[in-house]
User: Fold these one by one.
Assistant:
Number 1:
Amino acid sequence: MGVAILLFAGLALATVLFLRQEKLGASPRGERLERIRRSPHYRDGKFRNLTETPLLSEGHGWLDVLYRNYVATIPHHHPTDTIPSVKTDLRNLPTDADALVWFGHSSYFLQLAGQRILVDPVFSGQASPLPGTLKAFPGTDVYKVADLPTIDYLFISHDHYDHLDYETIVALRDKVGTVICGLGVGSHFERWGYAPDRIVEKDWYEALSLEGGIQVYVEPARHFSGRGLSSANTLWASYVLQTPTYTVYLGGDSGYDRHYADIGRKYGPIDLAILDNGQYDEAWREVHNLPEDVLLAARDLRATSILPVHSSKFPLAAHPWDEPLRKLTELNEASNFRLVTPLIGERVDLGPDSDGGQAFSRWWERVR
């Protein structure tokens, strides 16, 4: 009995210490929490999707999902080869060049109308608060904060660890001008040393103007949020970035829903739709697109080009590492969207004079 009590006490202490880690961030309080409570998307202590959204699709259970993802053998879950990449010099990229550089998973650098924009950066080499877990595939962790120029705007889609990375955010503190995020996410940034006047938190259907004449429209996604024991207490979002000549959709993490068609009607046609395509499961299709959903979303958005993200860096789901790109490419043969599939670090030219003129290889086909 004494040994059991000691083990229980030790486990309880370890849990408390883990939950007090700075990397878990902070829950919204005070005036921030009061603003959240006034949101029409916040009910009964949680943010809600436009459509009722269970974390697991009908017919799936947690035991099955846990077994499939953490116990069963998953063929080709990790690449045997090193993932290929190039390294564009971002610090010397001409500011008049509209361009994008993907860092793997859902992290990318976007230069638009002379503004340097960073989205969901994760440069720590893992997508988990537990040391040594969910590590990046060899060859994918190419960039570090030191490789980046000064960032005008840092966009965060939501606060999950594979999108909001403590080590990266702390290292970026002196390089970032303004943080743009959903309601409540700013509480993490304040705990990590960012001044409140550098953080802009928005609700769905709100807008803001950036330097360079960029208009930003904050729109829904179908997902969820949470770090530690908190769930859905901060807002997940997608963003439309619009200049007089070019429109980019930053989709964040999302399952397929009516918000894509709503966005397409309001802001389409979309020149480049950056869409969640990877780390999916039939059990999670309410909150993560399957490849076929990506094409439906692009249709609804009235998109010309698709940049599929959320793949090729972390093993977060029970599918072969290359399946998202392979399946999307195969399915797109009947749809004929322009697929933008750069290597990690490869420069993608943007703008009305660039679309369609740049070719991309099926680089994943050369990786075992």
Number 2:
Amino acid sequence: MKKIRGDNMQSAVVVNHLSYRYEDGPYVLNDVSFTIEHGEWISIVGHNGSGKSTLLKLMGAIMPVTEGEVYINGINVTEDTFSDVHEKVGIVFQNPDNQFVGATVEDDVAFGLENYGIPYDEMHKSVLDALNDVDMGAYLTHEPHHLSGGQKQRVAIAGVIALSPNIIILDEATSMLDPEGRIEILEVIRKLQREKNLTVIHITHHLEETLQSDRILVMNKGSLVLCGTPEEIYTHSEALIDIGLDLPFEMKLNRLIFNEDAFVTEMELLNKL
């Protein structure tokens, strides 16, 4: 499993020798390098304290890069380019309540567009299109805080989509939902990825959500320890367990019954049984 190095000007995301520490504390990222190509679905996994959140803040231009380089669509991420990066990257956070700023669903989704000075007619169409994209068009006048958890997250996604980013970062965006809600939200994102050719960076601790990824990046104690396809990553199940990650059910059962470290789908496992 190699850490692919891409073209700073052509790839969606290029991270080169990225390190970071808060003030004089220990390093929370240690010489991390990887590339994400346009249209990829990349899952980033790791235990608490692995560096996932810091990595997100640096890729999303929330904090300045101090050691190493991050390029987003060819833009070198510096404090001078934060606003340019924010036009390219949308972030859906763990708790949608923390993202709501409007009295109604329409107001909330329109907030970012208003900040860019978009004319009302164009803004209204963009808001409605974004809500329809996530099957929430009928909730235009509803108050966000009266929605279910899954509905709130759909509205948060619509608020991001309305700004037309080409990279979406999901920051544990399903972690507050039940299993059915997690599946629904990921299906919404996959539909949007196909329709809009989005690059998706999915930060999660639910490994079952990584099985359809193009590639998985595994973080541990600030370092990138594994990088590869699901088929490659899940041949290293013991390493995943050692760093505190909980294997997907199919892989757990495969190890228990067949003593194999391998990527298996539910259907493949049933056929083996």
Number 3:
Amino acid sequence: MHKECNHFLQKKEDVSPNTKQCEECEKQHMPTVAIRMCLTCGHVGCCDSSIGKHATKHFEETGHAVMKSIPEDIWKWCYIHEEYYSF
């Protein structure tokens, strides 16, 4: 973990996903490679390997800096510091 990144410590662990799939991909009938959940609001978006890249777009639109992989829940990502944190 990056020594200057406090974003991992600031995010709640009790946030629940809003849906089980990428919210935007479901609406647009787009395929999804993997999904990520925002640890600020529970938004579920697709990864950057997916066509929509909706998790990154969510960060760009909201400034919500930390997301985690779901459903496997094995790491977090800070968009601001571009750092992974493994559980």
